[in-house]
Amino acid sequence: MAKGNNLEQTKGKIKLVGRVKGIGNPNSVREGFTKSSEKQFKSLQFFLETSAINNVRVELFGMEKDQVTAYSMKDRKSKKIDWAKRKNDFGDYKVMGTGCYLESDPTDSSKKLRKILPEFDAVDYIKANLKDGDIVRINGEIDFQEFENKQGKLVSSSKFSIKSITKLDDELDFNSSEFKEESKFEHEIIIGDVMMDDETKRLHVSAKVIKYGGDIVDTSFTVDTEKYPKLAGNMTKRFGFGDFIKVYGLIINSVILKEAEDELNDSAEEEDWGGDDEIKKDFDNNFLKEYTQELQITSVDSSTYEPKKYKEEDLMSEDEDAFNGDVKGNGGNPPADDFNDEDEEGMDDLPFE
Which residues of 17-39 are buried (b: 16+ CB within 10 A; e: fewer)? Predict the structure, then answer.
């Protein structure tokens, strides 16, 4: 992970609507102490089913702090509050944190009670007020990470962090003709390279993002060239190293059962015993599970496009080799908070010609 000097953060956000899955698991909440500061942390992880085949793992991480920030909408000012006093009443000043809208408002049953809690406290609150099967809306952000694993290999990952969560009273029928999936993101990125994969019909976009504090992380996106041929063509033709742009797309983490190419057993074809073969597909060798995990770009914001905004030296730290980009030394470690162990589908046209 490189460290940029005075580089502006590339910002983004996610929007998800789905059915909660896995929060009832005892391991959905973990607690411990961070390696660097030895402060207590709590983390919550569960899946959100956004369609019949798509499951996005979301999480919330919080740790004890020396102070928290409280903000007054009336005064348009903020101030620091000692951690031990964070639950006190400070009048117009409200402690900032994760937005939780999970309980009915006792004064208006049509609304949800608004609670803004530090992440550390929000973990327990969400765990106590959500159950598997609940329908929620989540707004958040992508936490791009890069670290060296135990095998010495540089690994990139994307975590989907909760910033606000709202329980919905609506039903969610994935099989309804009116159902429209909401599993989307927007993010500012710096282009590294684009490469076409003819076998998968995917355009792979290597990119860099700049995190808060200046850390530079390598990541990747895809474009479905069959769905968005013009978008893929324009990106291939226009994008070069150092270009800056905001992209929109879909968060995909799906499993699809596909029939194997081998011929089915002749006798099986001849005799139909009836019944439901859905469960059989999970065990039948004639059906294969195809896993897809990607951030799929479906559109861009042309007004943000800045060709060659960054040079190679802008995105390197002193620990990197200017000739091959390999990091010298140990390549960095997992972040300190690593506990131990619009943008709709169908926007296939690039907004600029």
Answer: bbbbbebeeeebbeeeebeeeee
In the chain the first and final C-alpha atoms are separated, in Å, by: 35
DSSP labels for 190-247?
Answer: EEEEEEEETTTTEEEEEEEEE-TTSEEEEEEEEEETTT-HHHHHHHHHH--TT-EEEE
170: Cβ contacts below 8 Å, ≥ 6 apart: 135
Q: What is the DSSP string of 118-171?
A: -HHHHHHHHHHH--TT-EEEEEEEEEEEEEE-TTS-EEEEEEEEEEEEEEE-S-
pLDDT digits (tens, 9 = 90+) for 282-336: 665 555 566 789 999 999 999 999 999 999 988 875 554 433 443 333 333 333 3
Write out pLDDT tens, residues 171-187: 999 999 999 999 999 99
Domains of the chain by start residue, with CATH: 2-65+118-315 (2.40.50.140)
* Amino acid letter, residue 279: I
As a whole number of Å, the CA-based R_g of the chain is: 23
The conformation of residue 254, written as its DSSP 8-state character, comes to: E
